[in-house]
Amino acid sequence: MTELYADKLLRKAKEKSAMLGEVVISPAQMDQMTSLNPVTLEGQAEIIYNVFTYRIAKWHFNMIKVDEYILVTPTAPPAFAPAMAQKERLEGQIKSGLASAAQAVADYELLKHDERKYREILDFFKEGERDEHILRALFVDRVDAYTGEGYSMVTMAKRWPTIISDFIRMSTELDDVDKIKEELKVSKAEAVVLKTKNGLYKEWKRLFFPDVKSRYARIKNLLDSREKSVNAYREWLKPYVSRHRMIKEVTEIQPSAPMDNPLTFAHTPEGSVKAKLWIIKPFRPEEMGKPIILQGQGHEIEIYDNWVKKEKKNIEEMYNVGIYENEKEVKRLKERGEKINPYHILVRDKIKEWTYPNITATKKEELLSTHPGGFLDPRFVYYIFIDLDYDCDYKKGSTGPMVVEDQYFHFHPWLLSQNAMLLFLLEIEAKKIAFDREVDQLIGTRKIEEMIQKGIEKEFKDLEKKEDEAILRLESLHKFSEKTSKAGRSFISRVSPLKKYFFRPGPYEHTVFERISKSFGDYFGPQVAEMVDLIKQTCYRLSGVGP
Q: Given this model, what pLDDT does residue 91 score?
């Protein structure tokens, strides 16, 4: 499976036995890391998983599906045939949908070209209401010029060099050859030609102007319709692309993945579902003289602290999303001219969304009996975090009807502080936003077009804008403070290695053996054991052994 940044932090904490002080990421003791392998008949694995999922929700655990893949041999078992057939159908629907969207874009561009042309002609007629010379010049360039050699005024200019200017400055009401000759001071032959051209001009103006208006109305209507259909085609494709991307195969990431598996053969109908699940529950061990639940309207310790702000940069880089504290920060960055990622997360808004909704309850019974609606609970500082690797293999013999479902539950319990829990949730949100961006890019939605357009506009902006004097003063003050604090920073860097002997490293637990293993571990260990017993009891009932 694709490695998350949370996986890197968990591996790093395991190598160091734990990450403590400014954050707590502590692995459980060895006896709490459990693996179960229920082997059932066809259809029973799904029952076990559903019973497990719904029961732990009643135990006040939240569950997140972090990732999911399938692995199928060339001869897929019956359980996977509908999924693979659906994937093929989705591929065909996506291809035809993208072809329709591409054709709609081509039609739109053709209509847009015609719309620009007729809009330009309408603008000429609008200006011609005030100045007749504009329309007469348009007639010369767009109509008379195409009458052919010897018939257009452009070619007649060899004989009468001023015939075009004479035509433009003559009055539309002039219909008599002698009046034209006298007023424009031209020869009689040229006056005859000008009279003919003036008559053609008046006829063109009478017939063409109403036709232009009706054509422009039809083209504009078609253009707007086609523009909406282009966006509609793309929006309609989103569910198909989303469903197709959710049917992910391991071989998409690593084509050679099944080659060295001794249990997988090309001629045997086999398939497997692999998933990573996170099971979360706020937690606090009972201690003498301390309440098990903290009262209050907000987090006792700031959850969005410097550690989260430092580590979030890795998530931003990994998923190409922006993580900002709130709208004020976004506004401040815009004012400073910094680029804002259109695919971004506002941390404070997400904390509100994920926070337990009933923290104002006053009775202990209400607090304990209400299932948390969100992932975060400000009454607790620590969380039980179980990294569950789930694997279900569907095996069918090459001959014979029996299908065996081989399940694996790998429990990896951890103790997390609230800031680590927030960072892990931010990564899941970043992953979802990255998925949305991938779908938008594949389809080519309007949001992507606007991003590209903004990038093009930024290329042509003047990069040497004069800076505001206040900003210059702040920069000079910042440079001055840097110079004056250089000596202080060098002193701090020399003293920093000694801080651990004099200061507690952060607001969270910093002793594993004295506190976490003997206090926290003793409490969330039985809860893992309860999940294991639930799976075993469900297997016994399905086999007819249990009550």
A: 79
